[in-house]
Write a structure and sequence with these properties.
The chain has 246 residues and is α+β, with helices and mostly antiparallel strands. It has 7 helices and 12 strands.
């Protein structure tokens, strides 16, 4: 599928993208004015992972935002990282999107699914098992193939990341997306889920990103991140261990 961009004459970006793969995803959501893109991105990656299995889940970012109120270390900005979400979901659980659509509402105590009743923690283990995901980074100032801290304020839980060369990180990410896995991507300023791969009219490759800024934008909530920009901007990647080892 070709996607045409309407660009001003002063812009030098390619005018057309052709999709090579576009993985299944839940509806685009809108984080509003909150700095909670990391919640939306990591949940979107988990949702795409399950859709690839034929298991449809649509998860509530507002539940995690509500749980942040119980974390004394959480910054007032509500910023965090994909690994933060993975920690919080194991501690507090998760609920479906339809069960909690506003952060102001009380957090549900139960999850009702297919005639069964679960606690949020039990439900979380069914959609994101402990240690199912690997957290990755690329920092040439630190030894490769070891765990390292990412020294940024967003990493307030001090999660550690497996440090690999950037070319390897790019190759692992591309292979995982082509195998229909859900991926959470993070830069210093934003986080999005990777849901596909495209190329432009001169053959340069792009990741197709599921953003959390609503659908009232070009491409109806999708964005395009060039592989070159991926190498310059990537701070962290979260994917399943199965995706990493494929």
């Amino acid at each position: 599928m070709a996607v045409v961009l309407l660009l001003g004459c002063a812009q030098e970006e390619p005018q057309q993208f052709t999709h090579e793969v576009l993985n299944r995803m839940t509806p685009i959501k809108d984080q509003g004015e909150n700095q909670t893109c990391w919640i939306y991105a990591m949940l979107a990656a988990i949702e795409t992972e399950h859709l690839a299995w034929g298991d449809s889940v649509n998860l509530s970012p507002y539940y995690i935002e509500k749980m942040l109120e119980q974390e004394p270390q959480a910054p007032e900005s509500k910023r965090g990282m994909g690994a933060t979400l993975l920690r919080l979901i194991q501690k507090y659980g998760i609920v479906g999107y339809d069960a909690m659509r506003k952060v102001e509402t009380p957090a549900p105590k139960w999850v009702f699914m297919l005639g069964a009743t679960y606690t949020p923690q039990e439900f979380a283990r069914s959609v994101c098992a402990p240690n199912e995901y690997i957290t990755l980074t690329s920092n040439d100032d630190e030894p490769y193939y070891q765990m390292t801290d990412i020294d940024v304020p967003d990493n307030w839980l001090h999660d550690r990341y497996y440090n690999i060369p950037m070319d390897s990180l790019l190759a692992k990410t591309e292979r995982a997306v082509r195998a229909h896995h859900g991926i959470c991507w993070e830069s210093k300023g934003h986080a999005m889920a990777i849901v596909g791969i495209a190329h432009d009219s001169i053959g340069a490759k792009y990741f197709i990103m599921k953003n959390s800024w609503g659908t009232d934008r070009p491409h109806k909530g999708l964005d395009y991140l060039s592989f070159e920009k991926f190498k310059r901007k990537t701070v962290a990647i979260e994917m399943t261990k199965e995706a990493y080892h494929n």
